[in-house]
Design brief:
The protein is of the alpha/beta class and 291 residues long. The chain is built from ten helices and eleven strands. The chain binds guanine.
Length: 291
């Protein structure tokens, strides 16, 4: 069985082209503000990619950088200023925050209508209640990637491994919603699942989002299943060389085994920023009364 590689680039380009077409008829450019605290190296890469995407689409953008020692009060003051700024449609607080800062407290202070990450309790509540408004970017990117490659979800058994709010838990909710893009039968697995392989090997689609390099292999995936790898793990490179990026799936083991598999890098990661651009566009439309 030749394994189809579900590359992110064509799906991202399709999403960006659709967005460009809408932007050409928009009354104004959307505005995104990113808040970064500390010096997490992975965050620096994400933030650069967000800035590039804003520039490619002509969004107004601003980045607010704070040292790791910044107090909660200082961050809350920054968030309050961005909430009140009419030129800012979307606010994203880059995670993880340094130890000592509670993400829930900062995220909970965002204007929910500007919460383009979809992590505010009001937006998470809307998702749980089946009326999603702003949906987290990575789960949205997974769905968009599967849609691009015509992978059906309705009635299929999906195993999601990982229960983070950023990915696993919200993706499991989205997949189980009634209607288009949902209607899947979902099992959410995590570190306390006694027999992970028994759960995942029953699935038509396996989504790996637990943040453990190459942890899933052929024992976890039935032959002919579709594999979506959300993991981005940095591994030491060959002696003295640059570090390597690895997903949560042993991709080499999926060759000629899975029906289809996303690569790392170059898979789901590319979709996340495109979906952030989409969410920021939608936030602007809501604020302008265009939807
Ligand atoms: N860090 C890793 N992924 C994300 C994300 O989707 N949003 C934010 N704010 N931080 C992240």
């Amino acid at each position: 069985m030749q394994t189809l590689i579900l590359r992110g680039e064509p799906a991202r380009e399709e999403a960006m082209a659709k967005l460009r077409a809408k932007l050409s008829a928009a009354p104004r450019a959307p505005g995104l503000a990113v808040v970064v605290v500390g010096e997490d190296p992975a965050s620096a890469v994400y933030v650069r990619n967000k800035t590039k995407a804003c520039e490619a689409l002509g969004y107004r953008h601003q980045t607010h950088r704070f040292p790791a020692e910044t107090s909660e009060a200082e961050l809350l003051a920054c968030v309050a200023g961005l909430n009140a700024d009419p030129g800012v449609d979307g606010i994203l607080v880059q995670l993880p925050l340094p130890p000592g800062l509670q993400a829930e407290r900062i995220l909970g202070a965002l204007d929910p209508l500007k919460d383009v990450d979809g992590f505010h309790p009001e937006n998470l509540g809307l998702l749980v209640s089946g009326h999603p408004r702003c949906v987290p970017c990575t789960p949205r990117g997974v769905l968009r990637l599967l849609q691009h490659y015509d992978v059906p979800l309705a009635g299929r058994r999906v195993a999601v491994v990982g229960r983070s709010v950023i990915v696993g838990r919200t993706l499991a909710l989205l997949l189980s919603l009634k209607g288009k893009g949902g209607d899947a039968t979902v099992v959410m697995c995590h570190s306390a699942t006694p027999d992970l392989a028994a759960e995942t090997s029953r699935a038509d689609i396996v989504v790996a989002a637990m943040g453990r390099a190459r942890a899933l292999d052929r024992r976890h995936v039935r032959r002919g299943a579709v594999v979506v790898d959300v993991g981005i793990n940095r591994l030491p490179g060959p002696a003295g060389g640059a570090s390597l990026l690895a997903g949560d799936v042993d991709t080499a083991a999926m060759q000629d085994w899975a029906a289809a598999c996303t690569p790392v890098p170059g898979g789901v990661g590319l979709m996340t920023v495109a979906m952030l651009m989409q969410n920021t566009w939608e936030a602007m439309c809501r604020r302008e009364g265009l939807v």
